[in-house]
Every structure is written in C-alpha cells, then in structure tokens.
Amino acid sequence: FSPGAPPDNSSTLAASKTLPPKSLGPPPLGPVNPALRTESVRPTVEEPSEDCSVPADAILIPLREALDACRPTVQKQVCDDIGRRLMVLGDTWAQGKLSAPVRKRMNVLVQELQQHHWDTADEIHRSLMVDYVNEVSQWLVGIKRLIAEMRNLPTVVLAEPRDDGTKTMPDQE
C-alpha cells in the first residue's frame, strides 16, 4: 500500500486475501513485505487461463493511441522515448518473453487507462515493477511516463472515449 493513497476496491480486495496468518502478529509497516505477499497470492487471483493469451495488439494499440493523444502537448523527445519503449514491449511480447501474470496485469492496466482510472493504472504499474522487475524494466518506465502524461492531458482530449462505467448502457446520455 502506498501511504496517503486512498484504497480502491481492487487493492482492498487483494489486501483482504493477502493478510498473513494471525500467529505472525500484525503485518510490518513499510514497503518491504507487501511485495512478498502480492507475489505469493496475486498470480492465482489474477490468472484465469483465457486472459493469458491476450494478443499483443490488445495492449499495444490502446497504448499507441494514448501516446498519439499526448503528442500535441508533450515534448517530442518524451513521446519518442515512450514510443521506443512500447516497441520494446511489443517485441518482448511477440517473442513470448513475458510471463502470463505480466501479460494479464498489462491487460488490466490498459483497461484502467482507457477508463481514466489513473491511480489504479499507476498501482498496477508499481506492482509489476516490484514483482517482475527483471521482466519489465526495459519498457515499464515508458508506461509509467505515459500514465503521468495522460493524467495531465486536458479533459477535452480525454472526453472522446467517455467510459465512466456506463458502457453497458450506451443510450444513457
């Protein structure tokens, strides 16, 4: 848990499933133990087999669209760096070098971005960095920057998808 961040439903739910047995006493306060607990519990929680075969394009296309939305307001050098890192992600994914939990979390992260849930997307990014640093270190920095830049975009640019939980009832406007 990050200090000061309001708990959202997914982290609250994950926390309730990751509490240590009572014989260990209260969990230590600090950043050391949460990573160990999420590592041991999350893969079984977040790994339905059908989601492990997410095509790379399901992740990369929305990320590239997000990057394109940032281009008018973000420095070219920053956008180019994010673009390069997205290419590395695509190559790594295509070569089958990403584990199922990483692919699954990236799928969830992209869905959260599309719904403009910046804090949740950032939380998923952090969990990937902590749990799978060797697998994600070359490209995840670009995702982090993309989340930050999208968060700063004017709402006019973001209004286009308008997905605020009402997608099951499109005629509700």
UniProtKB/TrEMBL annotation:
Keywords for the protein's UniProt record, in alphabetical order? Activator, Apoptosis, Cytoplasm, Nucleus, Phosphoprotein, Receptor, Ribonucleoprotein, Transcription, Transcription regulation
Location in the cell reads: Cytoplasm; Nucleus
GO MF annotation list: transcription coactivator activity
Q: Which residues form the SRA1/Sec31 domain?
A: 19-159
Keyword Membrane on entry: no
Q: Which GO terms describe its biological process?
A: apoptotic process; regulation of transcription by RNA polymerase II
Extract the ranges annotated as region (Disordered).
Answer: 1-50
| Principal place of residence | cytoplasm
Question: Can you tell which superkingdom this protein's organism belongs to?
Answer: Eukaryota
A GO cellular component annotation in the UniProt record: cytoplasm
Role played: Functional RNA which acts as a transcriptional coactivator that selectively enhances steroid receptor-mediated transactivation ligand-independently through a mechanism involving the modulating N-terminal domain (AF-1) of steroid receptors. Also mediates transcriptional coactivation of steroid receptors ligand-dependently through the steroid-binding domain (AF-2). Enhances cellular proliferation and differentiation and promotes apoptosis in vivo. May play a role in tumorigenesis.
Subunit text? SRA1 RNA exists in a ribonucleoprotein complex containing NCOA1. The RNA also forms a complex with PUS1 and RARG in the nucleus. Interacts with AR.
Entry's family note: Belongs to the SRA1 family.
Stated name of the protein? Steroid receptor RNA activator 1
Q: Which organism is it from?
A: Struthio camelus australis
